């Protein structure tokens, strides 16, 4: 459950009003995705209170916002570590050792997939295809791709991430 004293995201309303003008009347529900993206960009995740506000502001049913949040794996519902390691495990990456890399990261970080290290530095996630299959295996760290990875490269990368 999110902390009850999180800051409001209502200061984003002027931005959202500008976005709203791009859509024809009656298509306000199209604001759901860009509003959620912007909230996550600012807060780092989408909190329950953000959903409450969007239900009121956009005027869509809560379930519609929940559907977007659960369909797109990019959305987070809880805070994450400073460095978000997203390891691809789809076919190309698996054939080139992704499972071994995931196991390696779990051991090195002392976490399971989906967890954050106690010091708040790293969150480990597993994702399906980062769209860079030709350079598999791929690990995304925040917004940066790290390609043709192996355990030694991962160890060196972890050292750089303070
Ligand atoms: S399978 Fe890993 S990037 Fe496509």
User: Can you count the beta strands?
Assistant: 4
Q: Overall mean pLDDT score?
A: 94
The CATH class of the largest domain turns out to be Alpha Beta
- Distance between the first and last residues' Cα: 28 Å
Q: What's the architecture of the largest domain in CATH terms?
A: 3-Layer(aba) Sandwich
What is the name of the CATH superfamily of the largest domain?
Glutaredoxin
Describe this structure in words.
The chain has helices spanning 13-20, 32-43, 48-58, 62-71, 91-95, 98-109, 151-160; strands at 83-88, 122-127, 139-141, 144-146. 42% of the residues lie in helices and 11% in strands. It has 2 domains: 11-71, Arc Repressor Mutant, subunit A (Orthogonal Bundle); 83-160, 3-Layer(aba) Sandwich (Glutaredoxin), CATH 3.40.30.10. It contains 7 helices and 4 strands. The chain binds FE2/S2 (inorganic) cluster (FES). FE2/S2 (inorganic) cluster binds at residues 88, 90-93, 129-133, 136, 138. FE2/S2 (inorganic) cluster (FES) binds next to helix 5.
Task: Identify the notable features of this structure and list them briefly.
elongated; 162 residues; alpha+beta; 11% strand; binds FE2/S2 (inorganic) cluster; 2 domains; 4-stranded mixed β-sheet; single chain; 7 helices; Glutaredoxin; Arc Repressor Mutant, subunit A
């Amino acid at each position: 459950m999110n902390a009850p004293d999180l800051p409001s995201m209502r200061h984003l309303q002027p931005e959202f009003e500008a976005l709203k003008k791009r859509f024809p009347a009656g298509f306000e529900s199209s604001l759901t995705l860009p509003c959620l993206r912007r909230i996550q960009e600012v807060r780092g995740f989408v909190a329950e209170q953000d959903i409450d506000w969007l239900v009121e502001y956009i005027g869509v049913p809560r379930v519609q916002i929940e559907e977007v949040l659960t369909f797109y794996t990019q959305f987070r519902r809880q805070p994450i570590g400073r460095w978000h390691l997203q390891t691809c495990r789809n076919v190309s990456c698996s054939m080139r050792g992704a499972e071994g890399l995931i196991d390696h990261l779990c051991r090195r970080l002392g976490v399971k997939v989906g967890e954050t290290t106690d010091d708040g530095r790293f969150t480990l996630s597993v994702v399906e295809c980062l769209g860079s299959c030709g350079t598999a295996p791929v690990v995304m760290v925040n917004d940066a791709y790290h390609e043709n990875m192996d355990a030694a490269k991962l160890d060196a990368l972890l050292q750089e991430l303070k």
